[in-house]
Amino acid sequence: MKNLIIERIETPNRRLWVLRESMHLEEANFAAFFDLTVDEYHQYEKVDSPIPNEFFECVADKLSMPIEWLRCECPLLPIPTPKHQK
């Protein structure tokens, strides 16, 4: 897996994009998985747009991944492999 520091993908917004792309999902499918509209989710991928803490918690919980990675609190972690949960 790529190291995100080397790739310079260090914002929560970019990490959401990387996560979605690693899952091979379009914005609409990813948004639907989290009960969001495409427009709501699209805003989260925009650089410097605020992302609610509740959304980070939801993503971390549903995909069993470290919330610290999503928030860029542990920059040396590789892209986690999401585990789909319903």
Quickly describe the structure.
The protein has six helices and no strands.
Top keywords for this entry?
86 residues, mainly alpha, 434 Repressor (Amino-terminal Domain), 6 helices, 52% helix, globular
Question: Can you characterise this structure?
Answer:
With 86 residues, this protein is an all-alpha fold. 52% of the residues lie in helices and 0% in strands. It has a single domain, classed as 434 Repressor (Amino-terminal Domain) (Orthogonal Bundle), CATH 1.10.260. α3 crosses α4 (38-45).
Query: Percent of residues in beta strands?
Result: under 5%
Number of helices: 6
CATH topology: 434 Repressor (Amino-terminal Domain)
Number of domains: 1
Q: How would you sum up the global shape?
A: globular
Task: Identify the CATH class.
Answer: Mainly Alpha
N- to C-terminal distance: 26 Å
Runs in which pLDDT lies below 50 for 5 or more consecutive residues are none
Fraction of residues in helix? 40-55%
What composes the largest sheet?
A: none
Task: Please provide the count of β strands.
Answer: 0
Which SSEs are present, and which pair or pack?
Elements: H1 4-7, H2 12-22, H3 27-33, H4 38-45, H5 53-63, H6 67-70
